[in-house]
């Protein structure tokens, strides 16, 4: 039976759903420790209500603004109410989408549940790993991170290119197979990588243009079967393939995907990857973090103190502007 493996890192918690042999990642989650994640409940103040609607905006305790829906009749601006976050804030190219929430009058203020607790609501068992466990490495975590960074995923006979845009996540299919075979193979790969990269919301797929209606229906069936076969299933709506090879998927969006994290906050993502690597340095000595200055700047004093506490080491930094963001490394040095 598949199993969720969880690493509770510095600044982020990572989870992968692995197969029975724990050698293949079936799905993944990446949770950065922001306060207003889905599931958090807070006391808020209604700052704006759209005329004639049940929507508006609220101010959360730290002055963060969130969009609110399903407001009760008669609630006026300035009123206090309890809200539950239903979707975290999302960074996008050129703009920032506010968090979304709904009234939760019967709840009590509480932070969002830890990722491990959230995953225990799924049908699969959850195991939290120790800091030095290598299960993620065995399953291919580094390869998955590279795919999230580049937006490119190869499959036999072709390649998928994922592009996050303000409107939707676009997936382009390219390859050397005959068009029908390429579309069928890519449909299976797309479904698998939606789960691996934790992509939800609105997704547009640009398949190769296929002339025959019967062939297009075969691709629709293959895609539908592949989505249904995902661990835990897939819940959403989709269109059939049109004459230009385009298909749209729509599902509930509650958090940023791995793709979004790496696309819109690459220095921060690289910083968390560096901290993960630093925790695993086994040689004795001072811990030296070598990275691009932007990556080191994303490691604030709280993160550095936690790294020192976990490893029992003194931390030194070596900023190198010529390094790529994800080319940083950690090593032990003699004082």
Written overview of the protein:
- This is Ribonuclease.
- There is one protein chain.
- By secondary structure, the chain is an alpha+beta fold.
- It has nine helices and 20 strands.
- The chain folds into four domains: 60 residues, Nucleotidyltransferase, domain 5; 63 residues, OB fold (Dihydrolipoamide Acetyltransferase, E2P) (Beta Barrel); 111 residues, Aminopeptidase (3-Layer(aba) Sandwich), CATH 3.40.630; 69 residues.
- Strands 12-13-14-15-17-16 form a six-stranded mixed sheet.
What secondary-structure arrangement, pairings included, does this model have?
Elements: E1 3-8, E2 12-18, E3 25-32, E4 41-49, E5 56-59, E6 65-68, E7 80-87, E8 90-92, E9 95-97, E10 99-103, H1 115-119, E11 126-128, H2 135-139, H3 141-150, E12 152-155, E13 158-164, E14 169-175, H4 179-196, E15 202-206, H5 213-228, E16 236-238, E17 246-251, H6 258-264, H7 266-279, E18 286-291, H8 293-297, H9 301-311, E19 315-319, E20 329-333
Parallel strand pairs: 1-11, 6-10, 14-15, 18-19
Antiparallel strand pairs: 1-2, 2-3, 4-5, 4-7, 5-6, 7-10, 8-9, 12-13, 13-14, 15-17, 16-17, 18-20
Describe the structure concisely.
The protein is an alpha+beta fold.
């Amino acid at each position: 039976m598949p199993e969720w493996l969880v690493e509770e890192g510095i600044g982020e918690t990572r989870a992968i759903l692995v197969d029975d042999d724990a050698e293949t990642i079936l799905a993944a989650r990446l949770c950065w420790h922001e306060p207003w994640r889905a599931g958090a409940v807070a006391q808020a103040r209604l700052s704006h209500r759209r005329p004639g609607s049940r929507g508006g905006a609220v101010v959360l305790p730290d002055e963060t603004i969130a969009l609110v829906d399903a407001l009760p009749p008669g609630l006026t601006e300035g009123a206090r109410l309890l809200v539950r976050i239903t979707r975290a804030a999302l960074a996008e190219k050129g703009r920032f989408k506010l968090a979304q929430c709904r009234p939760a009058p019967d709840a009590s203020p509480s932070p969002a549940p830890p990722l491990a607790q959230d995953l225990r609501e799924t049908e699969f068992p959850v195991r939290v790993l120790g800091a030095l466990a290598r299960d993620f490495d065995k399953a291919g975590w580094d390869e998955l991170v590279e795919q999230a960074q580049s937006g490119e995923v190869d499959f036999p006979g072709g390649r998928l290119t994922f592009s996050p845009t303000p409107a939707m996540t676009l997936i382009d299919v390219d390859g050397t197979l005959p068009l029908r075979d390429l579309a069928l193979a890519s449909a299976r790969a797309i479904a698998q990588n939606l789960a691996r990269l934790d992509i939800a919301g609105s997704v547009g797929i640009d398949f190769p243009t296929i002339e025959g209606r019967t062939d297009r229906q075969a691709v629709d069936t293959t895609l539908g079967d592949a989505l249904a076969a995902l661990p835990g299933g897939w819940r959403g709506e989709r269109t059939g393939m049109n004459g230009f090879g385009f298909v749209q998927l729509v599902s509930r969006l509650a958090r940023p995907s791995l793709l979004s994290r790496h696309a819109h906050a690459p220095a921060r993502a690289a910083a968390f990857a560096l901290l993960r690597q630093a925790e695993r340095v086994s040689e004795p000595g001072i811990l030296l973090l070598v990275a691009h200055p932007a990556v080191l700047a994303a490691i604030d004093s709280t993160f550095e103190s936690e790294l020192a506490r976990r490893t029992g080491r003194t931390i030194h930094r070596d900023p190198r502007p010529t390094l790529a963001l994800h080319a940083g490394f950690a090593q032990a040095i003699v004082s």
